[in-house]
Amino acid sequence: MNSEIKKVLVSGASIAGPTLAFWLAKYGFDVTIVERSKSIRLGGQNLDVRGAGRAIARMMGIENEILAANTGEIGLQFVSSDNKVQAAFPSDGADSFTSEAEILRGDLVNILYNSTKDNVKYIFGKYITAVDQSDNKIKATYSDGESEVFDLLIAADGVRSTTRQLIFGDESQIKFVGLYNAWYTIPKKETDTKWARWYTAPGSRVMMIRPDNHGTVRASFSFLSSEPGYQKLSNSEQKKILKEKLSGAGWEAVRLAEEIEKNDDVYFDGISQVHAPRWFNGRAGMIGDAAYCPTPLTGMGTTLAIVGAYLLAGELSRHNKHEDAFAAYEKRMRPFVEDIQRLPPGVPWLAHPKSKFGVAVVNTVAGILASSPVKKISKLFSSKEEDVTKDKIELPDFRHQ
């Protein structure tokens, strides 16, 4: 146990925050999590816990719970406007889009909450409005006017983190990649199966419908746009834009538009990366999407959140000074983050073609990749093993130091 630091405040009760709290509590720290929502937020789409993230889940003793909460998705199908399958990638294939540890965001949050609630103090319905640092303490003022003193403050409250602004001002760059996405839960229909279905529409639009393990399905709709401010609009204005963008797209567009109108929990955002010149300032810092969101396009946001939380807690446990822990953490973590944040050429534009010809190309390429000869070749070069080393980061066992 670090003799200097004992009391830590974490802002955000999603994935990075509770994972950090889990490990800090295990190392003897007194941890409080403050969360703006009135309770843990159980909504959200599919996540996959892979590689180093899954290795850490195993160390936390929650891997089996994650696997038991699997969404039941058996793979991904690319479909045409008349719902005919153009390509299929089963979950047990070497080139699968579906992970064995595919879980809904809310289910993972619930598992993390249940794993920490007995050893971590949770404050719901509040958020931090002011931060005041001295050489040996940091004071956080909450939205109800109350304040509390801690040894450290860590922001883990997402891409649009308000705590980051209080700690660092405007120095972090929020890099919009030109893509908007909406996620929401809709009622299940007879046409829905255990396959995730991907439909590419002309006009740079993509729809996905994915099964869940709650008797509903998860819908998402994405479209390219250079307009940077849609996420700042009111809920009704956002819904109007989404319905306009869905108009005439074909396939399940009418259904998705109707459900947007009925739904009170549509999450709509501009897909962005967070690039920060530093992650720590005095006794305050940030992890997860608040510090280095890679975008959902990488499929690695959850892994980054879990890995970052584990490594920061570990470094704090083995250094007497928080400055040394922060420096060691950043030296270990930043190359991993920068590698993941490098989007492949053509992302997200190649998957969102403007023309009917472009849509045909996407489906044709998917069909080729899903064909038997290509699958046989890919199996020679791929492995389904959840190998930590492929994530290009070492995970020290801080428990035995």
TrEMBL record:
<feature type="domain" description="FAD-binding">
    <location>
        <begin position="7"/>
        <end position="340"/>
    </location>
</feature>
<keyword id="KW-0503">Monooxygenase</keyword>
<dbReference type="GO" id="GO:0004497">
    <property type="term" value="F:monooxygenase activity"/>
</dbReference>
<dbReference type="InterPro" id="IPR002938">
    <property type="entry name" value="FAD-bd"/>
</dbReference>
<protein>
    <submittedName>
        <fullName>FAD-dependent monooxygenase</fullName>
    </submittedName>
</protein>
<dbReference type="Pfam" id="PF01494">
    <property type="entry name" value="FAD_binding_3"/>
</dbReference>
<dbReference type="InterPro" id="IPR036188">
    <property type="entry name" value="FAD/NAD-bd_sf"/>
</dbReference>
<dbReference type="InterPro" id="IPR051704">
    <property type="entry name" value="FAD_aromatic-hydroxylase"/>
</dbReference>
<keyword id="KW-0560">Oxidoreductase</keyword>
